[in-house]
Amino acid sequence: MRFFEKILKIDRRWIFLIVGIVVIIPLIFPIGMPVLTTPPVRSLYNYVDKLQGTGKAVMLVTDFDPSTMPELLPMACAILRHCFAKKIPVYLYGGLYSAYVGMAEMALEKTLPDFPDLQYGKDYIFLGYVPGVSLVILGMGGSISGTFNTDYYGNKLDTLPLNKMVDNYKNIGIVIDLSGSASPETWVIYGYQRFGVRIGVGTTAVSAAQYYPMLQTGQFVGMLGGLKGAAEYEQLIKKAGIPTGRLEATIGMDAQSFVHIFLIFIIILGNIAFLITKKRKV
Amino acid sequence: MMILLILSLSVKAFDTPNDGGGSITIEVVGLNGDLKNGYVYRNSMEDTTFELRGLISRTSYKYVDDGAENGKEYLYKVELEFDDTTLTLFTGPVSAKAQWYDPTRTSVLIFLIIFSGFVLWFIQLARKNPEGLFIRKIPALDAIDEAVGRSTEMGKPTFFIHGLSGITDAGTLAALTILRRVSSKVAEYETPLIVTNYDPIVMAASSETVKQAYAEVGKIDNFNEKNIVYLTYEQFGYTAGVDGLMIRENPGAVFLQGYFYAESLILAETGHSVGAIQIAGTTAATQLPFFIAACDYVLIGEETLAASSYIGREPVMLGSVKGSDYGKLFIMIFIGIGVIFATIATILNIKGNSILMNAFNTFMGWL
Amino acid sequence: MNISTDIWVWIAALLTLFIYSFLYKDNPFYKFAEHLFIGIGVGYTTVLLWFNSVIPKLWNPLVHGTSPMRFFLIIPILIGALMFSIFSKKNNWLIRIPIAIYIGAGSGLAIPLDFEGLIFEQVKGTILTKSMFNSFIVGFSSIVLFIGVIATLVYFYFSKEHKGFVGKTARVGIFYIMIAFGASFGYTVMARVSLLIGRMQFLLHNWLGIIK
Fold it and tell me: Residues near C47 by Cβ (< 8 Å), separated by ≥ 6?
């Protein structure tokens, strides 16, 4: 009885400490638990893979900031590596809000060293920021060069070879929005419903649950949910023999699994303690 | 054969229908799969040069030229390459223009009229007779009286914590109506009430609401403006401030009403740790799980608006809740009829009669 | 161990530790990091907005542009400036003009597309059709989804008391809602743990070089 009472009164700082230790130990001493892929991730991977040789581009949108970087930046890197390896042209768009452009730059910095043969302007273009949110999505349906004028580096878009082939959604095979907020919905509403461009989504685990209805109706081609989704995509590109760099998401999966086991344990223990002490008081 | 094919071929160019302009469609009529390549060239009628625009699709035999200027006339030349020969066809002049109405979105217009009609109709009814429109009582409303009563018995203050949205948000307006009800009760019981605010305009509205409630109960002298507290416009600064106040003042009841973000669980946990009875209400779906875990009563999403309509009977909000109720009823009936229709169509289709199935598919495509 | 020599990595690592020190208790290091974060966040956003929006979209076209149409930009600038009328007690009613335009145009743009994307597609996805029953699991899930959608809509139907058949259906609805909230809670816990893992990877790999 005293034990269960003590459990209910435990100082939360002990729990913080244990969670911290449970995270650190698997990172230092990795086990390498298998990462099994799920249908939403495979669906997105296969769709991107099939774009190889079609001449259609992938538009990767980094609609996230540093607060959600641990989950979404590995997704951006994995998708970029996939496209670069398969010679699928990429429009890297720094996001619907100005604070997100830095994330796109970081993703490029992490992936480009493994692909020295890529040519800027022909294999990929980095679009900067333009204000307007939904108006930008609508504008790109007409003309990307009309909406942006220049790329992130100040080059006029209509001088770049890739933009001459792909200037609106007609030649974009898929828009993949990586976001921790509600922007995937915005892309579906203004991109898919209006212009028919297919949308894929990479999202934080916080938002993943709310996007399953759109996945079920086919409005999203596929979905990467949280760090696990990023790890699954990393495993798929690793299996395809594509240079993966440091597998940040996969490395985190051991720690993720152990923390979840610990949390399940203390939730069950806490509930048992609550029920027992409640029963004894009655 | 080739001569017959050539004679049957024609090309037409027309303004792409149902768009915002800037687009011309070129279609080759009479092809039957022998085409090797089809090139589309355009002349803007300012000189004699034709520029290459793109390739004819080998499945639809169409090309859509998205780079046309509205109102400007163009000539098109189409070069069709077959195995043995190449054929050049001309068409035009044609110009692009924007359409005022897109008939492919007629379904949206119809549903918009139906839903808007419900809302406007009920707002009118609510204006004439607000008490005549029935809204069921939300269970958490009884808890408001219980919570304030408990606070009074324990000799502790009551806290009302606004969310992080502004005065234009429906959730904030609903929260103000609930604040009115809470203020009436605390004024009656002479319990101290502390209202924390994130937005300065919401603070001004809260102050007026509480003052009015005290005046209605005849205890305006007990109203203390200093208890309507503006903390900060910074999310976690506000959270830290509210937490600090809760720990110092030790409330008996805490109301968390409005739109919350990541700070929701921090606030609810602190309220739980001081032993207060907590009633939360928010339209932020991502924060509801945290309130449900940490609070005693929760107004889930639209229940906040319904509760405020139940209390305040304000015509616009009441009419909107009723109108959206009928909208939901319409959707439920629509789904039910859709399922029955699809089932009957499938059964008949299996038996060889595909009329209903074709009708169903056409309707779903129109939707 | 391969400790980083990059000053920015050290600054990021120390600020991370300052923020995490709050888990023990509030302290001056945490307060310093929090205030620094808030200040830099505001400054960064302001600068980005100025150089990415105001300068290229307003200043440059007006001052350096050549098209006579550019003077039309003055109209939205003046309408936007009316937002500052909130500070005047006498003229604060003027703020209704830009708000009305913003909400009106925004609603006109968003509502039809929201209907299509968020309501019609979901309704179409809920209606049970033969193609959903090609596999047992998809068919079973579709029935569960159908029941859940109807029951949840009944729960949020406020024009009838929850008694009898309506009450029982609403009970099924709240059951579905709670399962959904549980899943959402679990996902959120996973997300928070992922953020912790990301920061730990930064400290152990980028800063201390303990892990590869």
Answer: none
Question: In this complex, which chains have at least 3 CB pairs below 8 Å with chain A?
Answer: B, C
Tell me, what amino acid is at C99?
Answer: I
Is residue A115 domain-shared with residue A56, that is, in the same domain?
yes
Does the CB of A217 have a partner CB in chain C at under 8 Å? Answer: yes
3-class DSSP assignment, residue B169: coil
Same domain, A115 and A154: yes
Residue ranges of chain C whose pLDDT lies below 70 = none
- State how far the Cα of A180 lies from the Cα of A207, in Å rounded to an integer: 7
Mean of the pLDDT values across residues A107-118? 94
The terminus-to-terminus CA distance of chain C in angstroms comes to: 10
pLDDT at C65: 86
Cross-chain Cβ contact C129/B342 below 8 Å = yes
CB neighbours of B110 closer than 8 A, spacing ≥ 6?
none
Indicate yes or no: CB of B286 within 8 angstroms of CB of A206. Answer: yes
A212 and A275 in a single domain? The answer is no
Angstroms from A231 CA to nearest CA on chain C: 12
Mutation test of the interface with chain B: which of C126, C127, C153, choosing the one with the most B Cβ atoms within 10 A? C127
The confidence score (pLDDT) of residue B5 equals 66
Write out the two tokens for A234.
Answer: 């990393």
Q: Is residue A251 in some structural domain?
A: no
Of all residues in chain C, the one with the smallest CA distance to A19 is C193
Predicted local distance difference test score (pLDDT) of residue B4: 67
Interface contact flag, B364 C184, Cβ < 8 Å: no
- Whether pLDDT at B356 is above 90: no
Together in a domain, A182 and A53: yes
Residue whose entry in the numeric block shows the structure tokens 């900067």: A128
pLDDT tens figures, C26-37? 889 988 988 888
Percent of chain C with pLDDT over 90: 40
**Range in A75-84, B150-159, B348-357 the model is least confident about:** B348-357
Domains of chain B: 2-95 (2.60.40.10), 134-313 (3.40.50)
Residues A80 and A105 in one domain: yes
Q: Which of residues 225-254 of B touch C (CB under 8 A)?
A: 234, 236-237
Domain hosting A12: range is 2-30+258-281
Considering the entire predicted model, what is its pTM?
Answer: 0.83
Spatial contact of B227 and B221, defined as CB atoms under 8 Å apart: no
Residue A253 falls inside a structural domain: no
pLDDT, average across residues B24-52: 85
For the purposes of burial, counting CB atoms within 10 Å of the CB of C42, is it exposed (0-12), middle (13-18) or buried (19 or more)?
Answer: exposed
Chain B residues 315-354 with CB within 8 Å of chain C: 321-322, 325-326, 328-329, 331-332, 334-336, 338-339, 342-343, 346, 349
ipTM: 0.88
For residues A13 and A49, membership in a common domain is answered with no
